[in-house]
Design a protein that fits this description.
The chain contains 6 helices and 10 strands; from the N terminus they run βββαβββαααβαβββα. The protein is an alpha/beta fold. It has 2 domains: 1-75 and 157-242, Rossmann fold (3-Layer(aba) Sandwich); 87-155, no CATH class. Strands 6-7-8-3-9-10 form a 6-stranded mixed beta sheet, with helices on both faces. Strands 2-1-4-5 form a 4-stranded antiparallel beta sheet, with helices on one face. A hairpin with a 2-residue loop joins β1 (5-16) and β2 (19-30). It is globular, with a radius of gyration of 19 Å. It starts with a strand and ends with a helix.
Length: 242
């Protein structure tokens, strides 16, 4: 059976003022594929995400979602940004935060189905017990799960996550990775955490102005002491092109 294309990027260029940040990016991501994006700071990863989210417009080239130009795509894209600063003095509950993901333009009230979907997602992520807790009462990993629940409650076909395990403990990171592996949708994760590459991703995308695509190296590279430095990984990946 022919794979359905979820995202198609063709001849994409983007520049700020006169300097190109991304050059001639071509990438096809298939439905239900799990992609990890790595690369140096300033290499264009965040810009690429903003282009996928239509927060920026390509200087040249095009992006399509399910064969529809990104600018016309109406299906929800779930997004978990890298930095979300909560005012912990505001007494907002976990349920209230997750339900925000069901809000749309012109929608002022939640329906019964919204509350049922919220309950379903909270149970799926094993945080239903925190439903009525204030966000200030949760750990960093628990808060990240809440934000993931908010991204998922809109029932997206594509989920984009920017550093989803940043600033949370090892236990919380492992829980997030396990959840992501189980989600049955197209997933794109940007991460500096090299362990992401060994957590079930299908392909690794390296972006540094240009793009390099590699199959997941986990099948042929085993961690010695459970740790890799980024240069070791990049040297290993480079070997595929030699």
């Amino acid at each position: 059976m022919k794979k359905q294309i979820a995202i198609e990027v063709k001849n994409l260029f983007f520049k700020y003022e006169s300097e190109y940040v991304l050059e001639d990016i071509n990438l096809t991501i298939y439905d239900k594929e799990y992609i990890a994006i790595i690369g140096p700071n300033g290499g264009g990863k965040s810009t690429f995400l903003k282009l996928l989210l239509t927060l920026l417009t390509p200087t040249k080239g095009e992006i399509k979602f399910y064969n529809t130009l990104a600018s016309n795509f109406k299906v929800n894209i779930g997004y978990l940004p890298q930095n979300i600063n909560f005012n912990l003095d505001i007494p907002i509950s976990v349920e209230d935060i997750v339900l925000q993901g069901r809000l749309k333009r012109g929608k002022l009230f939640y329906k019964k189905e919204d509350f049922l979907k919220c309950e379903e997602i909270l149970k799926k992520l094993n945080i239903y017990e925190f439903k009525n807790r204030k966000i200030s009462e949760l750990s960093g990993g628990q808060r990240q799960k809440v934000l993931l629940a908010r991204a998922l409650i809109s029932e997206p076909k594509i989920l984009i996550l920017d550093e989803p395990t940043a600033s949370i403990d090892i236990k919380g990171q492992k829980e997030i990775y396990e959840i992501l592996k189980e989600l049955d949708l197209t997933k794109i994760v940007v991460s500096h955490d090299i362990k992401t590459l060994f957590e079930g991703v299908d392909r690794v995308i390296y972006i540094n102005k240009k793009i390099y695509v590699h199959q997941n190296p986990k099948l042929s590279m085993k961690p010695g002491e459970g740790h890799f430095c980024e240069m070791e990984i990049l040297d290993y990946l480079k070997g595929f092109n030699d």
